[in-house]
Structures are given as C-alpha cells and as structure tokens.
Amino acid sequence: MEANLVQPYHSFSTVSMRNRNKINTYKYKNIPYPLCSILTKPPANNQNHNAETTTGSSSNNVYKDNWFDRLAINHLSQSIQATTGLRNNKSGYEGLAEAAKMVYTNFNSTRQVNLVVEALQKAFPKPILSLMKMVLPQSKWAREYCAAFTRVFFSWLVGPCEVKESEFNGRKENNVVHIKKCRFLEETNCVGMCTNLCKMPSQLFIKDTLGMPVNMVPNFDDMSCEMIFGQDAPPPDTDPAFVQPCYKANLAINTNRIATVK
C-alpha cells in the first residue's frame, strides 16, 4: 500500500493564464477545509477493466454501464474539462475521475468547489432546472420525488443506491437516498476529493438550482453515503466530514512511505 500526501492549496502550474482568466468566481468563498488528506493507492491486482465494464482503479465492484450511463458520464467529464481548461484523453468513468483529480491537484479548496458547481451548471440546461424549481416547492412530495429521481437517474455517478425512510418534522418520509458504496469515492480513494468535489458542490448546486436543501453524509469506513433531502447541511467547520484526517479504510502505512507532492 502506498500513499501520497496531497495538499489542496496547490499551484496553477498546468493552467495557462488564458484558461485561468476564463474561469468565473462564484459566491462561495473562504470555505474552510482540512489542509491535507491521504490519497491511497491499492494493490495493482485490484484493477479489472474490459470493453463492457467500468471498474474503478481502487474498486472491488464491477460496473456495467449502459448507453445512458456512458453518455451521462462522458457529458459530465467534458463539462468539468471545459470549465477548467484541463483536458485528458481517458474515457468513461476513468476519464471523469481523471478530470476530478486534475481539479483537485491544480486549484485550492474554494476554487475546487466553485469550479465543480460551474461544471454542473453547464451540464444541466438552465430552463429545465428553473422549471423543476417552480414545480418542486418545499413539500413531502418534493423531497420524496428528489430521492426517487436520484436513485433512478444518478446511480451511474454514485453506484447502487436505495431510498430509505426517515423522520422529518415528526412524520415519516422516504426522503433519504442510501448509497451502498460510493462509486466516486471508490474510484478516487480520497477524502478531500469526496468533500471538495462531490459533497459540498452537490449540496450547493441542488439547493441553489432546485431550492431543495440536501445534506450528504459520507461514511469513510465503508464508503457508503446518505443524501438527506430537506435537511440543511451543517457549515464545514462543524460538519464531521471535514474533520476526517485521512481515508481510514486503506490507511495501513507508515510515515516513511508518504511522499509529498511538489
């Protein structure tokens, strides 16, 4: 097992001045995050790729993406690459993960969040989002609809998931999406990428575009996650996800094997 110490506040060494000037700054500023996280590398024999299967480099699960899954994965990957100006030649989920890793290693934490939010806004047409916001006012039906919609249409991004019941304002609702083992976390194997490139941008994007609060609660021990629709996420300085020191599941290393990224 090997590990790299990844520092989010990284240089812009691979971004041209022209590309940097094209990147807009969103209103989400000064978001506090841990200064570093551990990116682990699993044994090479965990890799398993073929023409019909997409498997994360750190994944034990095998994903058989259909035509819609592949279309959605490549569309989001291209949106991220177009937003940052950083391109890669990989395809499928591997290309999406590579695009995310390039964001993580070339921009500071606040910029990472803002860039992913911008990429999501490019990926989803504004008229559709505006219409959904109009027809989805805060209600039990809207929260349950968001949960069901996520389960059906976004398993390509997060992996197999199911809708669960929870108590909301004293009554039961099916407003929670339980992700059994997050595909993005499996692929990237990094706490910082989970919080900076998935959790925070998704929470901000869904609330701003649909008016629907959502709290994403990752479990770094088993790679599961819960999306609780209707619940406001706590601020980063009190959110347990942002005080996670490292990815615990694979941290069987000693300090002599940690290499600092320059």
Automatic annotation (TrEMBL):
Beta-carotene isomerase D27-like C-terminal domain location: 156-236
Gene Ontology molecular function: any one: iron ion binding
Top-level taxon of the source organism: Eukaryota
InterPro entries associated with the record: D27-like, D27-like_C
Pfam families reported in the protein's UniProt record: D27-like_C
Listed PANTHER family: BETA-CAROTENE ISOMERASE D27, BETA-CAROTENE ISOMERASE D27, CHLOROPLASTIC
Stated name of the protein: Beta-carotene isomerase D27, chloroplastic-like isoform X2
